[in-house]
Design a protein that fits this description.
By secondary structure, the chain is α+β, with helices and mostly antiparallel strands. The chain has one domain: HIT-like (HIT family, subunit A, 2-Layer Sandwich). Helix content is 30%, strand content 21%. The protein has 3 helices and 7 strands. The strands form 2 sheets. The protein has a 5-stranded antiparallel β-sheet with strand order 1-2-4-6-5. It has a two-stranded antiparallel sheet with strand order 3-7. A hairpin with a 3-residue loop joins strand 1 and strand 2. Helix 2 crosses helix 3. The chain is globular, with a radius of gyration of 15 Å.
Length: 147
Amino acid sequence: MEGCVFCEQQNGLSPVVGGAIYSDDLVYASHRFDASAPTYLGYIAVQSRRHVHHWADLTDAEASAIGLLITRLSRALKACLGVDHTYVVYYAEVVPHLHVLLTARYPDMPKEYWRGKIYDWPAAPKGGVEEVTQLCDTLRKYLTNPS
């Protein structure tokens, strides 16, 4: 859909730092990136390939694919980064394209930064283009061969 940031990224019309972590006919996942500040490592958007806004608009196959990808990415974050928890949220109030945000919570994160304050943790692993790209490469390799 014209003007949708996720549709544009999925179709190669705007850059995605680190590239797609996973993509097939139904779902697409990429690491979020903030060019204005260091990016929290382990902040991933899982999107429907088809431009739909609400969960109720998904086909059963799309819903299953999203759930499976969230699970597989959670395993990848645990195996590759040693995270002990992943948060999964859906708002879609800013970009009306179904996207689920998956965020890694690191084991040494103090409880006062859990949930909504996760990105405020001063010691959070963060990085720029190189670090995000390296993490995406690592996650892609894990998804291809989860051993």
